[in-house]
Amino acid sequence: MPSQEQPYGGDRLDDDHYPAYTMGRAAELIGATPGFLRALGEAQLIAPTRSDGGHRRYSRHQLRLAARARELVDQGTPVEAACRIIGLEDRLEDALRDNEELRHPAQGPSVARRGE
Prior knowledge:
The chain has a single domain, classed as Multidrug-efflux Transporter Regulator, Chain: A, Domain 2, CATH 1.10.1660.10. It is mainly α. A hairpin with a 5-residue loop joins strand 2 (49-50) and strand 3. The termini are far apart. The protein is built from 5 helices and 3 strands. Strands 1-3-2 form a 3-stranded antiparallel beta sheet. It is 53% helix and 6% strand.
């Protein structure tokens, strides 16, 4: 029976940023080659974590970015341009989320409407 202090990694299973996938498995999951993943690292779209043995490990979040890059490259977009597009898409998504949070704060004092 597992101890209460050492769960089987349930928190890690839900963590999109936990580096759970080896390079080979990551490439297989997105239908690409390990070289493609290395190219994304060189273009600074993703920065895989390194295991104690020096092997690259990828998170689900990184795999989603890599899969999006693969879609763009498959459509004829150069890798560097695909990485730039994805970076801009991420920044836009973050800005839209921040804007929405500022417009509709979950907690805190209500903001007076114009003209009141």
